[in-house]
Amino acid sequence: WGLAVSANGRTLYGASTGVIAYSLNSDGSINTASRTTYNSSAPLGSAYRSLVGVGSGGQYLYLQGYTEPSARVFLINGSTGALTESPASPAPLAAGSSGVTQLFLQ
User: Fold this and answer.
1) Which residue, 43, 49, 63, is CA-closest to 103?
2) How distant is the alpha carbon of residue 86 from its chain centre?
3) Nearest by Cα to 63 from 80, 77, 46, 79
4) Global pTM value
């Protein structure tokens, strides 16, 4: 699993064949009762080697299968941490790119 935390520090995202989200308590512990699953319109083939990351501006979450040439893109609700898949998803990655890592730098 890949893991990422929202820019406001209130949501933990985990990579699966989609994205699993948990809200975080004020002490940083995981609120396990708050689990929400977001499925992509084009699910990943493998949940075990997936990368997930929040973009540097905190508005987007990117999900990529380890060997896939594209990333799923989700918009992050800044107040609730809820995700909505972007109409541009899946987004192709540039040839020779380092995948999700490249997206964080843009």
Assistant:
1) 63
2) 12
3) 46
4) 0.78
